[in-house]
Specification:
The chain is α+β, with helices and mostly antiparallel strands. The chain has 7 helices and 14 strands. It has a 7-stranded mixed β-sheet with strand order 3-4-5-6-7-8-9, sandwiched between helices. Strands 11-10-12-14-13 form a 5-stranded mixed β-sheet, sandwiched between helices. Helix 4 runs antiparallel to helix 7. The longest helix has 25 residues. The chain is globular, with a radius of gyration of 17 Å. Bound molecules: D-MYO-inositol-1-phosphate and calcium ion (CA) (2 copies).
Length: 265
């Protein structure tokens, strides 16, 4: 398999889905929103985008299985496509411009290809293993900021699982007082890509799924950043918690999150 060629095909597929999402946004009616669970929204746009993506991915690499958000397909193999057909649905349905298509290829627990297409700004981020990270064809790298005091942090607020809220708020309080600020962008895939290209310096969130982080995390790593779970280990893909930062902040930021979440493991 040629990962570079495959990445180009996946970019094309992500952009086609993005084009569909963009045109639906023009005519989108809020009455089409369905509620999957507390604060967990979906519409025909997410589901149709996923169907389009799954059908095309199955053609370009039929050996791979699928782990997808909207359940249009489910079978896992050694290789798996991990797909979020519309990351940032809440932004999308409210008309806030940051939502993305996220497609990753996993091989035996490791992500080897990732594409995030942020539809509203027409920004396509991608990476494949050992190939570097790119934004619209230009190589990107994480920032070089080495202190939290000069950093901008991205996070996602808990929206339906509040079991670790106390720890979350302790990290949040520290960051409010000791950084340039905190951003809630509303799409985890975009949070990670914004870290990869140096717009923000660190990101953490709990209760994310594999499809939220798979592609973005590889893009961060290929841009020179670090990704761990809240114990600074490697269980971030399926472990529902992620810390990501530039390499220089790994110690200060990682230890802060680890320390506060010891209270609510
Ligand atoms: C959501 C976004 C958001 C994060 C949520 C996710 P969705 O994904 O990534 O930033 O905070 O927890 O569920 O539902 O829009 O695909
Ligand atoms: Ca998502
Ligand atoms: Ca989604």
């Amino acid at each position: 398999m040629n990962l570079q060629d495959l990445t180009q095909q996946v970019i094309h597929i992500a952009k086609e889905a993005g084009q569909f999402i963009r045109s639906e946004r023009q005519i989108f009616n809020y009455q089409n929103v369905e509620v999957k669970g507390l604060n967990d929204l979906v519409s025909y746009v997410d589901k149709t985008s996923e169907k389009m993506i799954v059908e095309k991915l199955a053609n370009v690499f039929p050996e791979a299985g699928f782990i997808v958000e909207e359940d249009t397909k489910s079978d896992t193999k050694s290789y798996n496509w991990i797909v979020d057909p519309l990351d940032g649905t809440t932004n999308f349905v409210h008309g806030i411009p940051c939502y993305a298509v996220s497609i990753a290829l996993e091989y035996q627990g490791e992500i080897i290809l990732g594409v995030v297409y942020e539809v509203a700004q027409d920004e396509c981020f991608w990476a494949y293993k050992n190939g570097g990270a790119y934004l619209n064809g230009q190589k990107v790298q994480v920032s070089q900021r080495k202190n939290l005091s000069e950093s901008l942090i991205a996070t996602g607020f808990p929206i339906y699982n509040f079991s670790r809220l106390d720890s979350y708020l302790q990290v949040f309080t520290h960051l409010m007082k000791n950084t340039h600020g905190i951003r809630r962008i509303g799409a985890a895939a975009a949070d990670l890509c914004y870290l990869a290209c140096g717009r923000v310096d660190a990101f953490f969130e709990y209760n994310l799924n594999a499809w939220d982080v798979a592609a973005g995390a590889l893009i961060v790593k290929e841009a020179g950043g670090q990704v761990t779970d809240f114990t600074l280990q490697n269980n971030w893909l399926f472990g529902k918690e992620i810390i990501a930062s530039n390499a220089l902040l790994k110690g200060e930021f990682g230890c802060l999150v680890q320390e506060k979440f010891k209270l609510n493991p």
